[in-house]
């Protein structure tokens, strides 16, 4: 982190208006768990550069982590309005909608993702997440397997695979999926 901070500081000393370096500085604050400072830094970038989608994404992520789901959703929806084909924003919106138990809206977003990027693992994962939320575990399994064919180490799909396996009573398979998640992201608290 120290080297990244030094690099960002050097870049900003050369060009204080460099949006990518400003966003990276804000992201480094988030990584250090300085969430209010990260949020303030992201907001400052957005205020100066309203179209800075990376700053908006960081803002939405930090708001979500801080438990501000409604703010996070509003930020993601603003991103989608600015860039309708932004697959990461739509992926994040599906997740927020499922958490809020707004499954029909999440399904609509997953369908929109399918039209934009049908082979993206986030798309098939989102379809699986919606199916899981509806209790349709066979459909969730098919979707998550599709996501894992494209991206075998995609941690969200591995986690969802484990949840589906638990619902099916396949505890050994669930354990293996969780071990795979931990191998990919060893500090993943939910895993």
Summary?
This protein has 191 residues and is an all-alpha fold. It has 11 helices and no strands.
Amino-to-carboxy terminus distance: 24 Å
Beta-strand content = under 5%
Biggest sheet record: none
Order of helices and strands: HHHHHHHHHHH
Radius of gyration: 18 Å
- Regions with little confidence, pLDDT below 50 for 5+ residues: none
Instruction: Name the structural class.
Output: mainly alpha
Helix content: over 70%
- Report the count of strand segments: 0
Shape summary: globular
Secondary structure elements and pairings:
Elements: H1 2-14, H2 19-31, H3 35-48, H4 53-65, H5 69-82, H6 87-99, H7 103-116, H8 121-133, H9 137-150, H10 155-168, H11 171-184
Helix pairs in contact: 1-2, 2-3, 2-4, 3-4, 4-5, 5-6, 6-7, 6-8, 7-8, 8-9, 8-10, 9-10, 10-11
Describe the structure.
With 191 residues, the chain is an all-alpha fold. Helices cover 78% and strands 0% of the residues. The protein is built from 11 helices and no strands. Helix 3 (35-48) runs antiparallel to helix 4. The radius of gyration is 18 Å and the shape is globular.
Task: Give the key terms.
single chain, 191 residues, mainly alpha, 11 helices
